[in-house]
Design brief:
This protein is mainly alpha-helical. The chain contains two helices and no strands.
């Protein structure tokens, strides 16, 4: 199968057009929202859950010592 220059040029033009459209859509998209910092209650709950998990792991692996 012989590759023709017109076919290659058409394929490259289509890819270039697609990339330009993607770039234009990315520029028009609104900026992503920044996540707010967790408040004190959320942080305390997370720390409590991590502490409970640590205690469970220590109990689960206590017999290996």
């Amino acid at each position: 199968m012989k590759i023709r220059q017109k076919q290659v040029a058409a394929a490259l033009a289509a890819v270039d057009l697609y990339l330009r459209q993607e770039e234009a859509e990315a520029l028009e998209a609104p900026a992503p929202r920044v996540a707010a910092e967790p408040d004190a209650w959320a942080l305390a709950g997370r720390l409590d859950a991590m502490g409970l998990r640590r205690l469970m792991q220590m109990r689960a692996f206590a017999h290996t010592r």
